[in-house]
Amino acid sequence: MANFYYLLAINLSLLTFYLGVLIYALPIPDKGVKRWSGILIKDSILSFIIIISIYFIYNYINNLANSLGGSWGYFNLWLTNAITLSISTKALLILLSSLLTKVPLGSQMISMISPINDALTAEIIFLAGLWGIYFIVNSLGQTILMFGLVLYSIPFRVARDAGAWFISFILVFSIGLQIMPVFITNIAESSGVNLNNQAISMGLTYINAKAYYRDNPIKNSLIYVYTYNNSYNQIAIYKTDNNGNIISPIYGNEISLPSEVPSYFFSVIDDVAFKLYPFPLYPYNLSFRNNQEYILYTNNILYENENYTLAFEGNNGNYNSFTNGNTVYIYGNTGYVEIRALDECVNNISYSNFVETKGTWNFNNLEGIYYKFTPINQSSNSYLEFNVNNCTQPKLNVKYSDYANNYLGIQNILTPSILEFFLLYYITIPLIYFSLLISITYGLARLLGGRRGIIPRVI
Fold first, then answer.
1. CA 456 to chain centre
2. How far is CA 11 from CA 5, 59, 73, 379, in A?
3. Containing H/E element for 237?
4. Are residues 315 and 443 in the same domain?
5. Which residues pair with 149 in a beta bridge?
6. Cβ pair 121, 128 in contact under 8 A
7. Run of H or E including 413
8. Is the N-terminal amide bond of 280 cis, ω within 30° of 0?
9. What is the pLDDT of residues 373-424, one digit of tens each?
């Protein structure tokens, strides 16, 4: 449907041009008629330029919002927490009011909390309206934008005002809603309200990331994320899928990180942790090209699969590996090589210039065997091979956590300054910001050619 509207807008722009040329060529010496020829030609040129430019601008909006620290996932999280907190607080006030009716002087106390209850009602209505705008912009934005272009391109300016408003509304709110939590957080922090020293002071950004070892995806691994201030502080637990994508338990491929401090990534497989480089990852140096995809890697892993079969090197080992079918070959020198697997997942192990030690390991609900191979002669090449069986993939029982939930979760806003926080973070600043978006929409609509439009008058 959007493509249909886009082509229709282009055709209407061409029709406007041809009508202008036709009127210009008519043998009618009437200035009132003739003046429309110039107007239509200028309108067609302007609408065609807007059609072409807005198509590219709209497709770049998400990257622009991401570069400013916003995203639809971020806004959705903020809005969900706002609605949840507002409804929960209102329900608590209603319960308190019903209890106060049964105690002396209860009516006086009810009158004190009644304004807060009314404010919460207005806040819930505002947030519900904001959710409706979010749904329209996020789900139907492209179609509405193309429809606005069609109205804008109709000859004789029949629907130019409406078209300019549709275009302005979608463009402004597409980027404005995504960066709304960023704006609110920065303003609230600058006001001196202690929102959350554990999370909010570290900021929030989103990236798409993949984990690799030696150009191979790390499959079915836990990804622990830390910040560091004299000691490591765990802020999130993610996982990887079979393509190496780091997955959030809430937002899928889009993972949340602090934006103001570096993050330290570890891949944890079979109770062994591997640093993922760059170590640490500085989010403020991220490039937002290619949908913000970022590659994290380790060279210590020699082999790994989705069934928790793992081979890695240690103590500055210098080993290489390759596979042929279900057989893994490892060769090199110095350090050591270790294989970890669930019971009966590897067999037919053979080696040369190695000493083998064997033991067991357990990690959460997983248990298995490890084989450690230390070279007899560190300076000579050692050789190792083993077969990988098709084991039944077990389910790892682990509780994942998302940094964004710690950043904006309700459990982190129940502070002594809750009233001040609530007034600033969910009422005052959002209303100011929403009014600002409306003003920008109105200004852009006038600029594009609403009533007494600025650009048409300049042209």
1. 38
2. 10, 21, 36, 75
3. strand 232-240
4. no
5. none
6. no
7. none
8. yes
9. 999 988 888 999 999 987 777 778 888 888 877 665 544 544 445 556 667 7
Query: Same structural domain for residues 182 and 236?
Result: no
Distance of alpha carbon 89 from alpha carbon 421, whole angstroms:
13
What is the DSSP annotation of 330-384?
EEEESSEEEEEEETTSEEEEEEESEEEEEEEEEETTEEEEEEEEEESSTTS-EEE
**What phi-psi label fits residue 344: left (phi over 0), alpha (psi between -120 and 50 degrees) or beta?**
left
CB 166 within 8 A of CB 144: yes
Radius of gyration of the CA atoms of the chain, in A = 31
The amino acid present at 301, given as its one-letter code, is I
Q: In which element (H, E) is residue 291 found?
A: none
Specify the amino acid at residue 164: A
Residues 221, 234 within the same domain: yes
CA separation for the pair 308, 247 (Å, rounded): 17
pLDDT reported for residue 103 = 67
Residues 78 and 113 in one domain: yes
| CA–CA gap between residue 97 and residue 92 (Å, rounded) | 9
Residue 161: partners with Cβ closer than 8 Å, 6 or more residues away: 445, 450, 451
Does the model's pTM come out above 0.85?
no
DSSP H stretches of helix in 177-276: 180-190
- Is residue 200 within 8 A of residue 163, CB to CB? The reply is no
The H or E element containing residue 300 is: none
Distance, in Å, from the CA atom of 182 to the CA atom of 326, rounded to the nearest integer, reads: 49
Give the pLDDT band (50/70/90) at residue 196: very low
Beta pairing, strands 232-240 & 318-324: unpaired
Instruction: Note the Cα 231 to chain centre separation in Å.
Output: 28
Distance CA 263, CA 182 (A): 19
Q: Do 175 and 106 share a structural domain?
A: yes
**Both tokens of residue 397?**
């029982």
Beta-strand relationship, 366-375 and 354-363? antiparallel
> Is 196 contained in some domain?
no
Give the structural domain span for 341.
307-388
Are 63 and 80 members of one domain? yes
Edge-first strand listing for the sheet containing 318-324: 318-324, 327-333, 382-388, 346-352
Are 396 and 240 a contacting pair, CB within 8 Å? no
Residues 287 and 431 in one domain: no
Residue 401 counted as domain residue: yes
pLDDT digits (tens, 9 = 90+) for 100-119: 776 666 666 677 677 777 87
According to DSSP, residue 218 is labeled P
CATH code for position 292? 2.60.40.1120
